[in-house]
Task: structure prediction
Amino acid sequence: MYPSHANGRCSAIRRILRVSLCLFLMMPNPAHTENALPEMKLQKSLKGAGDGNPLYTQRFGADPGVMKYDGRVYVYMTDDIPEYDSTGSIKENSYSLIQCISCISSEDLVNWTDHGKIPVAEDRGIAKWASNSWAPCAAHKTINGKEKFFLYFCNGGNGIGVLTADSPVGPWQDELGRLLITRNTPNCSNVLWLFDPAVMVDDDGTGYLAFGGGVPKGKQAAPGTGRIVRLGKDMLSLDGKPVTLDVPYLFEDSGINKIGDRYVYSYCSNWQTDGNDLGLTNGSIQYMTSESPLGPYEYQGELFSNQGNFFFDLYGNNHHSIVSLDDRWFLFYHCRTVERALGWSGNYRSPHVNEILINADGSLQSVTGTLAGVEQLKPLDPYRVVPASTMSDQAGLEVVSKEGMVLVTGDSGSWWKVSGVDFGDGSKGITVTGTMQAPVYVLADSLSSPVSAIITDEAEAVLSLTGIHDLYFVLSGPTDMVSWQVQ
Result:
């Protein structure tokens, strides 16, 4: 680019060039080859064109715990870390390296904003006493007139901790300074797997935490390892002794929700269900209902069979969460679809979502897992600042946290897609924040469409679009982008 000088001649030249660029971009002649992307090798996406599942592909994310707040769904996940052997080949996931929690959020369930990783365990983590951060879940509650957020996680299979924040994306702090649930907690010493928390705040503001799992020898039909407890008003203490739940064929993965006027406890069945008279199958999500959050619960049926029945025979542990948005209910779960696209086989998981339909009598219809996912609930508004890490698909990118910012970073041929962007009666331009060492190309509707705008290091360009379009950002060189906005 031209260097910046203080003389009027240079400023005039720059204005002429900018006006010329604007006029060029607004010329309605998409057949011209100069309006196409420059020659470069575009990176390949790890998800199918138009598919909503998996939710993101820039890294893995398992055990999705969901929370609705202010019209958005926040998904907190176990940060599966690839492990390699001495030859550089991928190894089976041991879960021992997991010390962070990943967080994404969305208001339309198709475009997901990546908020980066939350460092939880070990010396560089928030809870330095913890060794791992598995299977998170989150809740919010108004305490003393102020909204407060709680992020529960398990320290491996031996206890449950909690972090707090004033925002759903942090910064988080270790206010309690120790585990909330330990093997010294009443009625918890004989829980084989003291993990997999699920949290619910009831209509009256009372919090409940469900947890536990494992199958004692000879007790596959009635393991007796599920627990639920009322939380204290501060959500950091227990109000009473954890109650044993009578859960048929329990394995792990508790869930707790209120749907209508009934409480719903959901869980993953174990792998020894052969011959049962309930009709449930191995490694599948089951649900029970009660008139009280502490139970007793009555078995109702199978909500979601093992993912391998829907996705390429990719069987494995089944972990879920249930949430409502816009008066509809959704099931979040994980599957190994990104691992498969990479050609790996090591039990590295990625988040998915499908809708739950509810019958007139309040029963839940069984859910079919699909790569299509769910339809976009609402168009995206580009006239507000949009984090660059908001996307429905991407290829060749990383999302990193640096100096309190979340950056989308990539190189030539990397790209991302934002679905269903509503430009209304017409946009005039686009501005971005970030560092670009080469132009960023903006295209509408497909990667083969004419270029709609070229963003250089001046970080702004004309963008003239009306109505609803998918928007693609294509990098031609090293780029770190923070956000964008149209005018």
